[in-house]
Amino acid sequence: MGEIRDMMGTFELFQPMELEGALDLLRAHGSDAWVLSGGMDTFDWLKDRAKSPRVVVDLGSIEELKGIEANGDGIRIGAMAKVSEVATHPEILARFPVLAQAAEKVATPQIRNQGTLGGNLCQDTRCWYYRSGWPCYRAGGNICYANAPNSLNREHCIFEANRCVAVSPSDTAPALIALEAEMEIQSVRGMQRVSAEEFFIGPGTDITRMTVLQPSDLLTGIHIPGTWAGRPSYFEKVADRKAWDFALVNVASTLDVREGVIYEARIVVGGVAARPLRMHRVENAIAGRPINDETLEEAARQAVQGARPLRFNDFKIALTRNLVKRSIREARA
Ligand SMILES: Cc1cc2nc3c(=O)[nH]c(=O)nc-3n(C[C@H](O)[C@H](O)[C@H](O)COP(=O)(O)OP(=O)(O)OC[C@H]3O[C@@H](n4cnc5c(N)ncnc54)[C@H](O)[C@@H]3O)c2cc1C
Questions:
Q1: What is the 296 CA–ligand 1 centroid distance (Å)?
Q2: Cys-Cys crosslink for 314: which of 80, 157, 196, 309, Cβ 3.0 to 4.6 Å?
Q3: pLDDT tens digits for range 109-131
Q4: Nearest CA to ligand 1 atom 37
């Protein structure tokens, strides 16, 4: 089990200036290497010595991973763009406000100035049993400490538990899925783009990872198409504190409403499963209906179908119902 020693173990630090160099290093060192972006998640792991990589590859000097630029009718955000840049970028504010609102809700101004969008998406779960170095399923052991009779599991999942009950911590991830974003991944195998929805994986797919990324893969950019630009959208995060706190539940939505009728919607809830959960059932149930009480009640009902709360988190059921309703009723262009 890890202890807080506040001093990192030794590792070999590489600071490549180019993407190719970083990819070569990752290929050479495989699972011995750790990718470092802003360090906001990384340094917790290393200082607690719950993870002890032999090699650290710092992406901080690679210019091609930075910046936010127009790309056709959408935009491309470099993985090393700071969370604060995403929250305040004029084009994101004007065309994709749901993402700016989500980024604005991340942590604190200091963490947003240091943390990157790529790091925010690739960060590990905050389950404290796992982060404290307990040998749980996710850490390669054979028990889930958060799902035993006396476990503290108020923050854990209500959907898709599969041995592990940890949840996805990112505020920006649901917004990117709602915007139909694609993740640009580069590795020695070349470049591929994966939908934001498929980028995140649950324990049923691989209990040791939260994304599709393999040890030698890098998330290099995030592409947001113009499809949902300027359409009604909504983001809300509920946490115990107003700042410096992870979501208990968050929601992001984008809606295509024509003459008062919902033509199409994308609704994504975070903090309820190991991956941000797209509410396909809700989306199907509300398509073709006007935004009225009946539609909202149906959305709320569908949102929690199949939910399985743990001992201390049944409040997440009511929270999910209400957030999903609000994400439809309050969506604004
Ligand atoms: C006190 C505190 C409060 C926080 N509150 C919130 C919150 O409310 N909401 C929220 O969403 N987040 C929150 N965070 C998380 C914070 O936003 C993330 O830790 C941060 O965004 C991670 O980004 P980073 O650039 O610092 O990444 P790092 O810490 O450097 O990396 C995070 C992880 O991602 C991997 N990684 C990073 N970049 C890449 C890449 N390009 N390709 C492949 N792998 C990569 C790293 O190897 C590491 O495993 C909080 C963090 C702290 C410390």
A1: 34
A2: 309
A3: 999 999 999 999 999 999 999 99
A4: 119
